[in-house]
């Protein structure tokens, strides 16, 4: 199993529990933002392994080798820490809210969905499910998640509207409903590890996912039967920042 270290690399340890997993490849003393990186590395391991409810700030402090008080100098509470962990995982994607502007072509949505079918995206899938589960029980997580979601949805609506203007997307597709449908479909892919693990890494399934998003978008003149264009840099980031094996 691998968890991302401060440089974005996955560090491998045998499956002996989250404490040992999270201690792998800690940042070197004196590096920039060392304490913050230690916290995020430990938190990612703990949230993915134990879940939001069972993870305590004290446990994260022990895993990272720092004091609990040091965590609170970087993060207001556990909810903010969880959201930061999830956002870092999402930032490996071409659809990251911090990277897209709304001026991209709609084909970017196909690659974003397809990445969720990769075996190496397991950490991303687990953390995505965890943040939604935690939001149902914790008002702070819910508030942070809703704010992030609205930021993403606003940019995706711009992509759909741009697709309308350049004739790539059927004008009958209402932007608000379209982006929500795509988001719900992608969220469903996060359940693959438990519901249909045999589909992970299957090229035919990947093509089917891309074709389904093509249909949801009403994307015109697109060869949806082909594998989405590969973005090797993005995939390397995804594997290194948000993977478990």
Topology readout:
Blueprint lengths: L1 E3 L5 E3 L5 H5 L11 H17 L6 H8 L3 H5 L5 H13 L17 H8 L6 H14 L3 H27 L9 H15 L2 H4 L7 H15 L14 H10 L4
Description:
There is one protein chain. The chain has 12 helices and 2 strands, in the order ββαααααααααααα. It is mainly alpha-helical. The chain has 2 domains: 74 residues, Homeodomain-like (Arc Repressor Mutant, subunit A, Orthogonal Bundle); 154 residues, Tetracycline Repressor, domain 2 (Orthogonal Bundle), CATH 1.10.357. Strands 1-2 form a two-stranded antiparallel sheet. Strand 1 and strand 2 form a beta hairpin.
CATH topology of the largest domain: Tetracycline Repressor, domain 2
Helix content range of the residues, please? Answer: 55-70%
What global shape is seen?
A: globular
Q: How many DSSP helices?
A: 12
Q: What is the terminal separation in angstroms?
A: 5 Å
Q: Could you tell me the radius of gyration in angstroms? A: 19 Å
Tags for this model:
245 residues; two-stranded antiparallel ribbon; 2 domains; single chain; Arc Repressor Mutant, subunit A; disordered C terminus; Tetracycline Repressor, domain 2
Summary?
This protein has 245 residues and is mainly α. It has helices at 18-22, 34-50, 57-64, 68-72, 78-90, 108-115, 122-135, 139-165, 175-189, 192-195, 203-217, 232-241; strands at 2-4, 10-12.
